[in-house]
Amino acid sequence: MTAPPPSRTLDHPPRDAIRLEGVLHALSDPMRLRIVRRLAAAEDELSCSLFGLPISKSTTTHHFRVLRESGVIQQCYRGTAKMNGLRRDDLDALFPGLLDSLLRAAALQARRLREG
Amino acid sequence: MTAPPPSRTLDHPPRDAIRLEGVLHALSDPMRLRIVRRLAAAEDELSCSLFGLPISKSTTTHHFRVLRESGVIQQCYRGTAKMNGLRRDDLDALFPGLLDSLLRAAALQARRLREG
């Protein structure tokens, strides 16, 4: 008998355990905001490896975990790839209009800083 | 000659130094979110002592400082009182609609948790 493989499912808060404070904390970091903007633009699940962030792999993993544990994204394994998707339905149901408002604010700031 | 009194003005970031990440970090704490909701409801400046938060005076001071340094509130002395006001004009100019969207989300969550 061999030991069972380590679990390949990841913990996610159910919708009613998602808290505004946790969502805002998750989005209060420039890298995590960048990840969320990219996912929103893609309108699809994206593999972690696609983001090409200018940070170490372990820091990248940390940021994705903070986003998952706060309820902002869902993560699942597809073969060897870890796929990420925005939990838009959950966030829109809990906080109508907030995600779009945050994405607009982030886009405005990015443009302002680029043109600054 | 006597030494000049210690400065009674407090540092505030100018509008163009306010960052979305800093605003979201400031609002990612339940006490700070509560302070901001109260200021938004008051539509006026309020003295720190009015809030009656269930935390120590030094923690209260810390929370107000985080809100000020992120550009969410302005603080000034009136006699012995430290007065606080939302920087609504600055926030609305930088991130149109965001503050109202955040306040709505906070109100919805407060109702949901109360009724939960």
Q: What is the CATH third-level topology name of chain A?
A: Arc Repressor Mutant, subunit A
- For the terminal residues of chain A, how far apart are their CA atoms? 63 Å
Computed Rg of chain A: 15 Å
Most residues in contact: chain pair: A-B, 26 and 26 residues
Encode the helix/strand succession of chain A as letters. HHEHEEHH
Count of structural domains of chain A: 1
Which percent bin holds the helix content of chain A? 40-55%
Number of helices of chain A: 5
- Quaternary arrangement of the chains shown? homodimer
Gross geometry of chain A: globular
Strand order of the largest sheet of chain A: 1-3-2
Beta-strand fraction estimate of chain A = 5-15%
State the CATH class of chain A.
Mainly Alpha
Fourth-tier CATH superfamily name of chain A: Winged helix-like DNA-binding domain superfamily/Winged helix DNA-binding domain
**CATH structural architecture of chain A:** Orthogonal Bundle
Biggest sheet character of chain A: 3 strands, antiparallel
Overall mean pLDDT score of chain A?
A: 92
Tell me the structural class of chain A. alpha+beta
Beta strand count of chain A: 3
